[in-house]
Amino acid sequence: MGSTTSELRKSRGVIEFYREFLPVSDSTPVVSLGEGNTPLVYCPQLSKRVGRRCQVFVKNEGINPTGSFKDRGMSVAVSKAMERAAKALICASTGNTSASAAAYAARAGISCVVILPAGKIATGKLLQAFAYGAKIVAIDGNFDEALHIVRELGDGYQFVIVNSINHDRIAGQKTAAFEIVDVLSDAPDFHLLPVGNAGNITAYWAGYRDYEAHRQSTRLPAMIGFQSGCAAPIFHNHVVEKPETIASAIRIGNPASWKQARAAIAESLGAIGIVSDEEILAAQSWLAKHEGIFVEPASAAAIAGFFKCCDSDEAAYSFQKIPEASRIVCTVTGHGLKDPDAISQQMKELQPVAATVNDVRRAIGL
Ligand code: F0G
Q: Helix or strand or coil: residue 4?
């Protein structure tokens, strides 16, 4: 009963699954690595924190092919670029976009240039860009400056820009909202996520609205975004010239989709909040140890924000008076292994013991 390769079922990606909601036609070449269809994990310990029969789910986007949510939009953006016979991609990045762009460019057989803030990219993400064969340029500047350069180069030199200013990226990222509604049979009441360049909050809101317009859901969630305290332009309502945070993925002072994020928050009756680096690291560790989900620091901003909403009347949004049995979804955007530096400090405490049962017993504390 052998089958030839061409008969094997191809793994599905966001384009095959949600084709009718995406800007593609039968003649669009599909560039996919099997992205999407990520787990929506019910989290009992997080649910307990809210109480009152509320249910909390984590949408684990770290389970995408390159370990972050960017792959959804990248599949659509690179497919559309190929339709237009593009020869090269370009992006600015805090790390994940560059990893994803490099992978999908490799898959499509075209070249990819990534412009990165020197010394500010998490180890795993930089490694990915090298592995997938991107042309990497590190600048003495931050993400906002890198994006400025990309906009200039993208205009003049045959590059397709695959940052989230590319509408095809946003279209692809909407599929995460579709999946959540498909699993829950309706939209959740609240949706929490980290905010950097603000493409993702824009995409989720567009996705929820599309699905409601197509009568796939009966309601819309309140969108609640979180920025890191010293990189919080939307929260403070002004550009931050020198953003700083341990969550390097969201170290952004002038988000490209600022206006769209503001609109999503206002229209959904949501909120924008801030969390500190300490709260981010504590939430990262808590989520790994209590729910078994290891995420990168930027992703943990959503969980840190969730704790604030549970614990404080003064949070951006207080969960203390939300209706019984509300459903809350937190998107965690990237895998913990991408950014091992903070955790790897703990490994220094590991001292070997002699290879005997007795020594091991003592080390365990038996
Ligand atoms: N979480 C992670 C892990 C990210 O990599 C990013 C953005 C965000 C959250 C914020 O999403 O920008 O759509 O608001 N990373 C971009 C990059 C900027 O270059 O990889 P956003």
A: coil
Q: Which two tokens stand for residue 290?
A: 């209590």
From the CA of 298, give the closest atom in ligand 1.
Answer: 1
- Cα angle value 61/48/274 (rounded, 5°): 55
Count of CB atoms situated within 10 Å of the CB of 112? 27
- Ligand 1 geometric centre to CA of 363 (Å): 41
CA-CA-CA-CA torsion for 42, 47, 52, 54, nearest 10 degrees?
-40
Ligand 1 lining (C-beta closer than 6 Å):
68, 93-97, 164, 194-200, 249-250, 296, 298-299, 333-334
Ligand 1 atom nearest 299 alpha carbon: 1
Provide φ and ψ at 8, rounded to 5°: -65, 145
Instruction: Identify the bridge partners of residue 76 per DSSP, sorted by sequence position.
Output: none
Give the model confidence (pLDDT) of 21-32 as tens digits. Answer: 999 999 999 999
Strand-pairing partners, residue 19, are: none
Which protein residue has the closest C-alpha to ligand 1 atom 15?
249
Ligand 1 centroid to residue 214 C-alpha, Å = 28
Give a three-class secondary structure readout of 42-100. ECHHHHHHHCCCCEEEEEEHHHCCCCECHHHHHHHHHHHHHHCCCCEEEEECCCHHHHH
pTM confidence score: 0.96
- Which residues are paired to 113 by β-bridges? 90, 135
Reported as a single tens digit per residue, the pLDDT across 231-268 is 999 999 999 999 999 999 999 999 999 999 999 999 99
Question: What's the DSSP call for residue 326?
Answer: -
249 CA to centre of ligand 1 in angstroms: 5
Runs of H (alpha helix) within the chain: 14-18, 44-50, 70-83, 96-108, 123-131, 143-156, 167-173, 175-184, 199-213, 233-236, 258-267, 277-291, 297-311, 341-347, 357-364
Tell me the residue type at 41.
V
What is the distance in A from the centroid of ligand 1 to the CA of 236? 19
